[in-house]
Specification:
The protein is α+β, with helices and mostly antiparallel strands. The protein is 28% helix and 34% strand. It folds into two domains: 109 residues, Probable inorganic polyphosphate/atp-NAD kinase, domain 1 (Rossmann fold, 3-Layer(aba) Sandwich), CATH 3.40.50.10330; 151 residues, Sandwich (Tumour Suppressor Smad4). Helix 1 packs parallel to helix 4 and helix 5 packs across helix 6. The longest helix has 17 residues.
C-alpha cells in the first residue's frame, strides 16, 4: 500500500507567501507520495485518520497545531516554513527556503527517513520550541497584535513598547524537585534554542537529549534589558550577570499575573508544570 499524506496550507501565513507557493509545493510533494490530500488547516480535529505523513506549509503557529495531532497519533511531520518566525524549522536544521524544505520532505518520504525529537507537555498541550513567561511572553503578545512592521522587526518594536511598563516579579521555579525562589524578569523553557524569529534564548537546547534548557533573567532594570536584548540573536545574553541557566526534565513555574506562551501561542496564565517527553514527535528528514 502506498504513502498517503496530507498537506496543510495556511494561506494567510507570511503575508500570503504560503498561498503563492502552495501549488508548487503540492506538485513537488506528489513526487514522493501515492496520495496527497490538500487541507486548509492543521487543526487536530480537522485532519483525516490513517495518514502516513502530515506536511505543514506555514509558520510556527500552524506547526504548533500540527504537533498536537502528530504527537497524539505518531504521524510523522514534515515542515515547510513560510511564516514570520519559523523557529522550529530553524531549531531542527530544516531549510528556511520553503522550496528547498519541500524537496527535503520529498527525499525523506521516498527514503522513509524519520527522526525522533523531544516535545514539552503541559496541561494537555504539546510544545516544540519554547515555553516562556514574563517579559518575553508579554512581548510576544504585543507582537502578535502589531500589523507593522513585518518579520523580526515586529518583535523589536514590541520589546521597546513593553520596556516602559514591565517589572520583575517574585517567581518560584521547581526543577526536578529543587525549588528556587527569586525575583525574575522572564523565564524561558527551551526544547529548541529559538523564539521570536531567531532569538537564541536557550542557545544550548538540544531537542533530542530528553532535557529542557531553562534561561532565567533575574531582577533586571530597563538598562539591563537594553543591554541583554541585542545579545539574544547570538546567545551572548548568557554572559550578563542577571542571567542564569538550568537544565531539567520537569519544571514548575509559579508566578502571579504573568502572561504565558508556548511556540508563540498564548496560553492561560497561572502556575504550570512542563515535562520533557523524549522522542514524542517524529520529523520527516
Amino acid at each position: 500500500m502506498g504513502i498517503r499524506a496530507a498537506l496543510a496550507v495556511h494561506p494567510e501565513t507570511g503575508r500570503g507567501a504560503a498561498a503563492r507557493i502552495a501549488g508548487t509545493v503540492a506538485a513537488r510533494l506528489r513526487a514522493g507520495v501515492d496520495r496527497l490530500e490538500l487541507l486548509g488547516t492543521a487543526a487536530p480535529d480537522s485532519l483525516p485518520d490513517g495518514l502516513d505523513a502530515l506536511v505543514v506549509l506555514g509558520g510556527d503557529g500552524a506547526v504548533h497545531h500540527a504537533v498536537q495531532y502528530c504527537a497524539a497519533t505518531g504521524t510523522p511531520l514534515g515542515i515547510i516554513p513560510a511564516g514570520t518566525g519559523n523557529d522550529l524549522a530553524r531549531g531542527l536544521g530544516i531549510p528556511l527556503d520553503p522550496l528547498r524544505a519541500a524537496d527535503a520532505v520529498v527525499t525523506a518520504l521516498r527514503e522513509r527517513r524519520h527522526r525522533a525529537v523531544d516535545l514539552g507537555h503541559l496541561d494537555g498541550t504539546w510544545f516544540a520550541t519554547v515555553l516562556c513567561t514574563g517579559f518575553d511572553a508579554a512581548v510576544n503578545a504585543r507582537a502578535a497584535r502589531l500589523r507593522w512592521p513585518s518579520g523580526p522587526r515586529r518583535y523589536d518594536v514590541a520589546v521597546l513598547a513593553e520596556l516602559a511598563a514591565f517589572r520583575a516579579r517574585p517567581v518560584t521555579l521547581t526543577t526536578d524537585g529543587a525549588r528556587h525562589h527569586l525575583d525574575a524578569t522572564l523565564v524561558a523553557v527551551g526544547n529548541t534554542p529559538y523564539y521570536g524569529a531567531g532569538m537564541r534564548i536557550c542557545p544550548h537546547a538540544d531537542p533530542a537529549d530528553g532535557l529542557f534548557d531553562i534561561t532565567v533573567v533575574g531582577h533586571a532594570t530597563r538598562a539591563d534589558l537594553l543591554r541583554i536584548m541585542p545579545g539574544l540573536r547570538h546567545g551572548r545574553h548568557l554572559r550578563h550577570p542577571a542571567v542564569r541557566t538550568l537544565r531539567a526534565r520537569e519544571v514548575r513555574i509559579e508566578a502571579t499575573g504573568w502572561p504565558l506562551c508556548a511556540d508563540g501561542e498564548m496560553l492561560p496564565g497561572g502556575a504550570v508544570t512542563a515535562r520533557c517527553a523524549r522522542g514524542a514527535l517524529t520529523i520527516l528528514g
